[in-house]
């Protein structure tokens, strides 16, 4: 989708995605970590993709960008759309998604426990069967 682009359903291999509990979006944006650009106009998923996540009852979604909503969206449209309808895990700031390929894998997100928090740092682990 590129800088400022929108990730639509055309980027999703629906038969494969339908089998998954989580969807991970590798945009390559993590190469900008440590630079001001990282917080700029990163690619985001479309509202249609958000609706697919809800309709297909995904447990979660992960990205290699700073957020699911564009920085310019102070309303947090995608966050609110997903979180108001279901308990769904949104994982942001992932890295090395290029190393997991495009198939199914086992994913674990191990968060630090914080009292009264709405988020936490995690150790993300992908287990790929060969």
Please describe the topology of this protein.
Blueprint: E1 6-7, H1 14-17, E2 22-25, E3 44-45, H2 47-55, E4 60-63, H3 77-85, E5 89-91, E6 106-111, E7 122-127
Parallel strand pairs: 1-3, 2-4, 4-5
Antiparallel strand pairs: 6-7
Helix pairs in contact: 2-3
Task: Name its key features.
two-stranded parallel ribbon, 130 residues, 7 strands, alpha/beta, three-stranded parallel β-sheet
Description:
This protein is an alpha/beta fold and 130 residues long. The chain is 17% helix and 21% strand. The strands form three sheets. It has a three-stranded parallel β-sheet with strand order 2-4-5, with no helix packed on it. The protein has a two-stranded parallel sheet with strand order 1-3. Strand 4, helix 3 and strand 5 form a beta-alpha-beta unit. Helix 2 runs parallel beside helix 3. The chain is globular, with a radius of gyration of 14 Å.
Encode the helix/strand succession as letters.
EHEEHEHEEE
What sort of overall outline do the alpha carbons produce when their principal axes are compared? Answer: globular
Kindly report the average pLDDT value: 92
Reading side by side through the largest sheet, how are the strands ordered? 2-4-5
Q: Helical percent range?
A: 10-25%
Describe what is shown at a glance.
The chain has 130 residues and is an alpha/beta fold.
């Amino acid at each position: 989708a590129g800088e400022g682009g929108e990730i639509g359903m055309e980027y999703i291999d629906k038969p494969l995605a339908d089998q998954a509990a989580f969807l991970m979006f590798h945009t390559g944006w993590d190469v900008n970590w440590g630079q001001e650009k990282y917080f700029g106009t990163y690619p985001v998923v479309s509202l249609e993709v958000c609706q697919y996540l809800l309709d297909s009852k995904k447990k979660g979604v992960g990205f290699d960008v700073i957020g699911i909503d564009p920085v310019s969206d102070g309303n947090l449209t995608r966050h609110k759309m997903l979180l108001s309808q279901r308990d769904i895990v949104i994982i942001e700031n992932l890295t090395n998604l290029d190393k997991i390929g495009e198939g199914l894998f086992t994913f674990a997100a191990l968060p630090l426990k914080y009292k009264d928090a709405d988020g936490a740092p995690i150790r993300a682990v992908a287990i790929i069967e060969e």
